[in-house]
Amino acid sequence: MRLPSLNATRAFEAFARTGSVKAASDELAVSPTVVSRHLRNLQLDLDVALVEPHGRGLLLTSAGAAFHTQIRRAFDIMRQANDDIRPASRRSLTLWCIPGIANQRLLAGLPQLQSRLGNCEIILQPTLSRPDLVRGEADAEVICINGLETHPDVRTELIAHPPVHAVASPSFRSRFPEVREAEMKTVYTRDSVIAVNGGAIVTRLGPPIRRGEELPVTRTLANLGMPILRTISGVGLMEGGSFAFITPKVAAVGLSSRVDEEGARQLEEVLGTQGVELLRVHLTGYRLHIDGMFVMIDRDTAFVNPTLLPFWFLEKLNELKIRQIEVCPDDQNWVINCLAVRPGHVIVPEGISPRTMEKFAKAGITTRVVVYDKVALGGGGIHCSTSPLIRDSL
Q1: Is the pLDDT of residue 181 over 60?
Q2: How far are the Cα atoms of 4, 9, 61, 64 from residue 71, in angstroms, in the given order?
Q3: Which has the closest alpha carbon to 385: 170, 187, 101, 244?
Q4: Which of 148, 196, 341, 350 is deepest in the core (most CB within 10 A)?
Q5: CATH number for the 90-162 domain, one of 3.40.50.261, 3.40.190.10, 3.10.450.50, 3.40.190.170?
Q6: For helices 6-18 and 32-46, what crossing angle results, to 10°?
Q7: Per-residue pLDDT for 122 more than 90?
Q8: Is 360 exposed, middle or buried (0-12, 13-18, 19+ CB in 10 A)?
Q9: What is the pLDDT of residue 84?
Q10: What residues contact 29, with CB distance under 8 A and at least 6 apart?
Q11: How far apart are CA 331 and CA 305, in angstroms?
Q12: What's the average model confidence in pLDDT over 117-122?
């Protein structure tokens, strides 16, 4: 049987490992269009769907995941064979680095590094992808990361700890002089407080840059005369973007790097006194909040991305008689982060597809589309930017 194109197979392996066409194109030093063409040609050659549309990107199908498992072993063997046959007198150093640092810092220092290493080929790979250092995909990487990673077979060193400065317009600073530079993400008010019957829960946010929001949130709630039932404390982490009421007596919390079990336990203590059941939903990978995949938009209707939610949770929604409107592949990533201003009336960001708008209309959901892409650049959408304090009873 004729083998498929090696270039196409290599492009698919890079995409499957990095998770995006852009990252694969950076690694292979080709354009994203070339990677997309290789993926399309490989599927035509094999006559099987390896990837499927998801938002503005692609995801592996089950067949694609199985295929990647096999070809990854083959590329490992080829890589090892290359290392084994390379003359011992000609060494190499493969260094992966994010493009900004590679262009601004490393390129100018390569001659000095070369002089120190002598007869050694330096291979600098500017990329947003992370190499598997244990498998030997690179000898070293230079990255920006929040906290050092540890692995028994990998040496990690802190090179620099540069300050990070948020930027705001002069008009914003004049209107909010009390906001410090590190507090610009406070525009995403959903995360810092959760309103329940009888008062509010002040959360403890995950990112260090957002620590300290508890004080202005507490002062604001006090000025409004709203009781504070709990402040998440200790090692507990909780962010409101990963909490949602499904019914008045059933709520869900998404566990991730932003919400830990201790935070969920403290939240559950408050809800338990009110007879509210709390469902724990473990989010996948680096997903942060459940409102990126599940948002209630009517009394009995949810807007969901079923590919990111566990099956048991979808079944629980069916058990609760919650109708589910699923995102379409044509929808942009932030579409699901919408806001129901009242049951059945939703504000959605620009980028929602006609197919999804048609689903909303058939379900009796009215929508208003707003341009919100600039706010989304900071990492949050419409739902993230609002924090309801009082809810009318359903």
Answers
A1: no
A2: 12, 8, 15, 10
A3: 187
A4: 196
A5: 3.40.190.10
A6: 110
A7: no
A8: buried
A9: 75
A10: none
A11: 11
A12: 82
